[in-house]
Amino acid sequence: MTETLASLPAPDGKAATRTPTITPAAKAARRRARTKWSDRMLMAAIFLAFLGAWEGLVRLFDVSPLMFAPPSEVYSAFVRGATRGLYWEHLGVTVFQMVCGLMIGASLGFGFGVAVSEFGRLGRLIFPYLVAIQSLPKVAVAPLVILWLGFGIESKVVLVALITFFPVLVNTLSGLAIVDAQRMDLMRIFRASRWQQFRFVRLPSAAPAIFAGLNVAVILALTGAIVAEFVGAQRGLGVLLLQAQTNLDTAGMLVILVMLAVIGMCANTAVRVIERRATYWVVRREDTP
Amino acid sequence: MHAALAERPAPRPGGTPPLMRFDAIRHDFDTAGGSLRALDRISLDIDRSEFVAVVGSSGCGKSTLLRIAAGLLAPSEGRAVFSGTPVSAPRPEIGMIFQDAVMLPWFSVIENVVLPVRIAGGDMAAARREAAERLDLVGLAGFHDAAPGALSGGMRQRASIVRALMMKPRLLLMDEPFGALDALTRERMNIELARIAEESGIAVLLITHSISEAVFLADRVVVMTPRPGRIAEEIAVPLARPRSERTLLEPDFAAICHRVRRHFQSETGIE
């Protein structure tokens, strides 16, 4: 019997075993490596061209330093600030507020999402309030939160949590709303408890949607932290940005903006890496950026 | 066909209940256009270790019957009785195989196979050993830790049969298990299923559109008519066991296939 089975066509391995020298898989891997390398070169070239154009245009049109600064000026402003030790504390505060707020907001959003979808009655009772709060622009609450919690870190963490709560909540809800009838039948056949159904089928099915919410939340977290700092704070990159504006230090403002862009990119990448690991079974297009 | 209804087997001597009995089952679905009768007056017994195949065209309520047998659906009228007790919910003695293997993509093949034991809170170490052995037996050695998506349809379906066997069922319900496979793989799977059923002594209720598959595998073929699903005829298949490729060449095999096929030729627009 095992013999008949062994002689079954192995749909995947067949082509590879027939050509012992260079397998198609190895060829494809090499081709991928090549494109990856040439992509990197191209990216570096585009970046340099971008910097060159920025520098050249600012100098060519002799733009007032009050309005804009070329990259060389931005860089020297950064070096001046860095040697004075100006940035690190503020950077740390903003990143801390963002990460803390995101973790609290995302956890609550996920928790409420699960509660609302699992306990239908609770959901119906609290849903109108969630909708009401969601349609409110969260930054408009900032003055009130700062009034309650002061100019310190706490008020910013609360605001970031409030802002990141909703995208995660909404996506958790829509992810858990999708039910694969066959998988649920399978769970019923195995007599899985409600918790087991949730853990083995519904949560993994919802995971891609939940991560989509987290991807939105991470960008909102940075926005939330900065705007909250604008409204009232003692430390943070938002404070530094306002100070630079008051001092008519345009190059200094651009330094902060570049920093924010870098923070945003790092945070976004971190979430994507976690997403890929957590939802390893999801088939993605190979060239997804 | 109505004569066949009257020929229902008499209650067996000694009064031991059959493994599975469908007792005058009727089922209606509520649809936008009113009530739709899917099954009507279905009475059928399955004995221990018996292999029963139900053939019928699409929409004859075969899958509904299977869901009722599995305890996934309560019939509008009548009842399914397993070994003397009415089936009101899924039970471990009744396993089910779906048309798609329904492997969870976030688990490896072996994790999928041991999932029922994990859910039931059984001995996982023993389950893993057993699963590994059985997977090797059905030609999935080397694929234990593969993602289900990396397997072909036939391999996935074999893994899902192994998964159903993990609960040591006494009755296996199979809903078009090989419908999505190519003809060659399907034939091999049939031979393999015949062997599993013969060796394990598990009773099987197989739903299929394939007449030759039904006759090859079953001890008894039940022909159903569509809308509402009714039993047109029960045909005994006295072909020798074990069944193998040679069974397909027997004149009786062809004769029984022909007898089943006549039902579909008399209907319009089917097969």
UniProtKB/TrEMBL annotation, chain A:
Organism: Aquabacter spiritensis
GO CC field: plasma membrane
Residue stretches making up the ABC transmembrane type-1 domain: 91-271
InterPro entries, sorted: MetI-like, MetI-like_sf
Descriptive protein name: NitT/TauT family transport system permease protein
A family per Pfam: BPD_transp_1
One GO term of the biological process aspect: transmembrane transport
Subcellular location: Cell membrane
UniProt record similarity statement: Belongs to the binding-protein-dependent transport system permease family.
Sequence ranges of Low complexity compositional bias: 14-27
Segments passing through the bilayer: 41-61, 95-117, 129-151, 157-179, 200-231, 251-271
Region (Disordered): 1-28
Keywords from the named record: Cell membrane, Membrane, Transmembrane, Transmembrane helix, Transport
Membrane topology: Multi-pass membrane protein
Automatic annotation (TrEMBL), chain B:
Swiss-Prot/TrEMBL keywords: ATP-binding, Nucleotide-binding, Transport
Entries under SMART domains matching the protein: AAA (SM00382)
GO molecular function, one term: ATP hydrolysis activity
InterPro entries referenced in this protein's UniProt entry, alphabetically: AAA+_ATPase, ABC_transporter-like_ATP-bd, ABC_transporter-like_CS, ABC_transporter_ATP-bind, P-loop_NTPase
Domain of life: Bacteria
Protein family per UniProt: Belongs to the ABC transporter superfamily.
Protein name: NitT/TauT family transport system ATP-binding protein
Organism: Aquabacter spiritensis
